[in-house]
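User: Design a sequence. Structure:
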């Protein structure tokens, strides 16, 4: 089976410190001589976006006399974009964006995915949910998040999922390749973030999981059972600990200017939660830059073991263990917080390898949740989780 290399190589996300200026600019556009002008109508599509088994003619309408301009590649329409004058012939998958323009004023964009499947897909069905990722303008890599449009389909009344069946989620996102040695596999894992039309994180519930913006599409390529990680997570959850929620899905990746076909099929994946500080995920306190003294400085950290060649900021303990910052982010964690974290781990290692390591007050038990560490170690051994 051929696995299609999905998606694109860059995205445009506005820096946080510029958002206030964008808002001010938008306000200025609506004002003339101190009098606010009515906002332009947001265009509507007929038919609405979806997956179609035949070519279609797409109508774009809006009230008033404004000019409608459109794009077919997911980019925002500008005053130089084509003018809509007659129904568009959609023969291949496209992300259509439309926007009204009038007298130097522009309205909000409307955007939807119109995916066209070829005749080989008419009879396709699955007992699993389907994830359709449409790339917009290139390929994805392991460094940069790339824009995409996603549609998640769920089983219908007969318990089977089809390309024209019920939709659980549809909208914009960003994707990048995930892993290191696994990047050499013919089937890659991806990090997937849901975003709004402006590229900002958008928290949504997907496949029954609590709403968030950060997700993983995990490719269990070397695991021939496809379920080793899922089983480990489920066991951890039943032991009373947090572990990412998971759902098996089948993934299709469509390219620009192409129809969804058997060539678009990427295989069985695990759609799962990305580890993140959140009340429904890793429920720890938020540590802010001004919290540099006890007791606030003592909690709210997530750090990880990873490969050193990624070049991410990290730290080393006295015994040579190397970790990387996750939460707070490397650019947000303060000097005092870094020092506290390293000092805490140095004390843990000193107690663990010291002569009183069994002492409940001076040994490792003073620094670790012993029961959860035992459970975690058991699961790692049981599932052969070499990572």
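Assistant: Done.
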């Amino acid at each position: 089976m051929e696995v299609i290399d999905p998606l694109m190589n860059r995205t445009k996300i506005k820096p946080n410190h510029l958002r206030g200026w964008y808002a001010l600019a938008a306000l200025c556009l609506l004002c003339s001589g101190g009098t606010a002008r009515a906002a332009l109508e947001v265009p509507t599509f007929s038919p609405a976006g979806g997956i179609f088994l035949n070519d279609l003619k797409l109508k774009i309408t809006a009230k008033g006399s404004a000019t409608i301009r459109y794009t077919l590649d997911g980019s925002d329409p500008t005053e130089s974009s084509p003018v809509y004058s007659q129904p568009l012939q959609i023969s291949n998958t496209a992300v259509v964006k439309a926007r009204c323009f009038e007298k130097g004023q522009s309205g909000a964009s409307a955007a939807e995915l119109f995916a066209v499947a070829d005749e080989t897909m008419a009879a396709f069905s699955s007992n699993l949910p389907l994830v359709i990722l449409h790339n917009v303008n290139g390929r994805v890599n392991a460094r940069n998040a790339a824009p995409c449009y996603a549609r998640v389909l769920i089983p219908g009344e007969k318990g089977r999922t089809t390309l024209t069946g019920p939709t659980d989620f549809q909208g914009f996102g960003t994707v990048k390749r995930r892993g290191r040695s696994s990047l050499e596999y013919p089937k890659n894992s991806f990090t997937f973030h849901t975003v709004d039309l402006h590229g900002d994180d958008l928290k949504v519930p997907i496949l029954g999981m609590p709403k968030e913006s950060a997700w993983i599409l995990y490719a269990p390529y070397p695991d021939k059972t496809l379920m080793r990680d899922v089983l480990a997570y489920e066991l951890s959850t039943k032991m009373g600990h947090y572990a990412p929620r998971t759902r098996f899905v089948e993934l299709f990746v469509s390219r620009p200017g192409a129809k969804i076909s058997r060539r678009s099929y990427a295989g069985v994946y695990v759609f799962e939660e990305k580890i993140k500080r959140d009340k429904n995920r890793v429920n720890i306190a938020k540590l802010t830059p001004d919290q540099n003294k006890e007791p606030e400085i003592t909690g709210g950290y997530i750090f990880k073991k990873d490969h050193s060649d990624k070049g991410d900021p990290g730290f080393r303990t006295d015994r040579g263990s190397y970790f990387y910052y996750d939460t707070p982010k490397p650019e947000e964690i303060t000097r005092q917080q870094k020092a506290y974290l390293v000092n805490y781990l140095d004390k843990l290692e000193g107690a663990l390898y010291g002569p009183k390591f069994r002492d409940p007050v001076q040994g490792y038990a003073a620094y670790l949740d012993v029961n959860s560490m035992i459970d975690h170690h058991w699961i790692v051994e049981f599932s052969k989780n070499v990572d």
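The chain has a mean pLDDT of 87. The longest strand covers residues 167-178.
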